[in-house]
Design brief:
heterodimer; A: 275 residues; B: 252 residues; 5-stranded mixed beta sheet; 8 helices
């Protein structure tokens, strides 16, 4: 009864509440389906970053001989953030094409779908973050007020990945080989960004290039916040020339989000008939 | 007062002859034009549905019935024309939206009912009533894939009648389900009628259409062929179809 009364009094609020419920359902179902029926269940989500970590630590930990304190925390932070980026964009990629039946049978804003699956990726990321925190504690790194900075940094990364996801899912409705391009891109990103090696390993021109990528800026900022200043904690400010340089990748992230939103919304009215 | 007003609705779909679904092709032949076939699903359809009316839409396959319903539900955008709906429109046109075979009946009730607009609390309050009406109380935690298609439809219908609405659009709800359950559905139809709900109802079940609908619209090739009292339009449609079938049968 209350919801009906609300509909009459505040139709817009009731509508928004309804759309948020759809958002929640799609995100939770996606998450449930991913792990339901598998023996390890949610443990799978943790197994992936740990497997990456084990291999990269054994192989590259020695190659780069960073000798830096807390390198394991540094490395694991990078892996977990990278897997979030891949998970969020990968889920968004097929999101529209996979939900054709929903789009053709229910009237609701299409944008809810990619946003939902981005939230699913965020849930998985949240679970993985617990591993990072556990690792940090074990290495004697404890949270301080500075860790609060992680929240806006993750918000920036969320908008950036959502922007990429919106572009990918719009393209995928038309071109099915976007998957191959995305796989290649994700694979290259793992090697082209300082996840397993320190920033200083790159020549200085390449450092400037990678820091235009918001992912690298967020990655290095989060590491800086968690591990503190070390010889491998280059940030956008130090590479791109001061605080103003820090704004470059942030602007790229916001521009990516706006661009994704615009092209998605332009195509949205025709999704029900095309997917 | 009319609940639904439809004026000169047009909708066509472009179907590419050779679907260019790969980026690769775009790079290899960037200037090759893709040939399209135009399919005019709706070519100027107008009608009105009165408040509290049971309105049927019939017609052969591919006549544009589902497209029309999707436009009324604001799922598709018409190319031209106007649609006006007065009153709270139910957000769905088919049963079982969002059903997932890998999840339990309990989960699916929550998914479907949420998509149809109920809050968590409303779903919890109505959960027992839903399972009881569907006669599936014993299978609450079974996965939906273990349900027969009839059981799935029963569950879907039971959820849909819990959703408050003033205008309901339904696409082929009676296709599956045994006779006993169909009678139960018919009872809820009678109830909707008594409550003064407006229902637009697409079906191939002409007996049900005649029994419940006040007026019926016959759609053929995207245009209104007939619109009038249910018995009249259904009768004409039956006669026409029979006539079409006879020459076909003689050539076989």
């Amino acid at each position: 009864m209350t919801s009906e009364a609300a509909t009459v009094e505040r139709p817009h609020l009731a509508r928004l509440a309804y759309h948020l419920r759809i958002l929640r359902v799609i995100a939770e179902v996606e998450f449930k389906l991913k792990y339901a029926g598998s023996v390890l269940g949610y443990a799978w989500s943790i197994a992936k970053p740990l497997a990456y970590f084990a291999v990269l630590w054994v192989v590259f930990g020695r190659v780069f001989k960073t000798g830096v304190e807390n390198f394991p925390v540094y490395l694991l932070t990078g892996i977990v953030l990278y897997l979030y980026l891949v998970d969020a964009t990968g889920l968004a990629l097929t999101a529209m094409a996979n939900r054709g039946s929903l789009l053709r049978r229910l009237a609701f804003p299409a944008l809810i779908i990619p946003v939902s699956v981005s939230l699913t990726a965020l849930i998985t990321f949240g679970i993985n973050s617990l591993v990072v925190v556990g690792f940090a504690f074990a290495s004697g790194v404890f949270p301080d007020l500075g860790w609060l900075l992680i929240v806006p940094l993750l918000a920036e990364l969320f908008l950036f990945t959502l922007g990429i996801g919106l572009v990918l899912t719009t393209l995928f409705v038309r071109f099915r080989d976007v998957v191959q391009l995305w796989e290649l891109g994700a694979q290259l990103l793992l090697f082209a960004t300082p996840i397993m090696y320190p920033v200083s390993f790159l020549p200085s021109w390449a450092q400037k290039v990678v820091f235009v990528n918001p992912f690298v800026q967020v990655l290095q900022d989060v590491r800086y916040v968690i591990v503190g200043p070390t010889e491998i904690s280059a940030t956008a400010s130090s590479v791109l020339g001061g605080p103003a340089g820090h704004l470059i990748p942030i602007a790229v992230a916001l521009a990516t989000f706006v661009f994704g939103l615009v092209i998605f919304q332009r195509e949205a009215p025709t999704f029900p008939e095309r997917v | 007062m009319s609940a639904i007003e439809v004026r000169e609705i047009r909708k066509s779909f472009l179907i590419p002859h050779e679907q260019r679904t790969m980026f690769k092709e775009l790079f290899l032949h960037p200037f090759r034009r893709v040939a399209y076939e135009r399919n005019d699903a709706l070519a100027g359809v107008s009608f009105e549905v009165e408040k509290g009316e049971f309105f049927g839409i019939i017609g052969p396959n591919g006549s544009g019935k589902s497209t029309l319903l999707r436009i009324l539900a604001r799922i598709y955008r018409p190319d031209a024309g106007e649609v006006r709906v007065q009153g709270k429109l139910s957000p769905f046109i088919e049963l079982g939206v969002g059903f997932n075979l890998e999840l339990s009946a309990r989960d699916n009730v929550w998914i479907n009912a949420s998509l149809l607009g109920l809050t968590r609390r409303e779903i919890a309050d109505r959960f027992d009533a839903i399972m009881e009406f569907a006669e599936l109380d014993r299978f609450v935690d079974q996965k939906l894939k273990n349900f027969s298609s009839g059981m799935q439809v029963r569950l879907a219908y039971s959820i849909s009648i819990q959703v408050p609405f003033e205008v309901l659009l339904l696409d082929e709800v009676l296709a599956v389900g045994d006779e006993g359950f169909q009678e139960k559905c018919f009872a809820t139809f009678d109830e909707m009628r008594r409550d003064g709900k407006t229902v637009v109802f697409v079906s191939h079940d002409l007996d049900a259409v005649t029994r419940f609908c006040d007026r019926v619209l016959l759609l053929r090739d995207g245009v209104v062929e007939a619109l009038g009292p249910a018995a009249e339009v259904v009768g004409a449609y039956r006669a026409e179809e029979a006539e079409r079938r006879v020459p076909e049968a003689s050539t076989v």
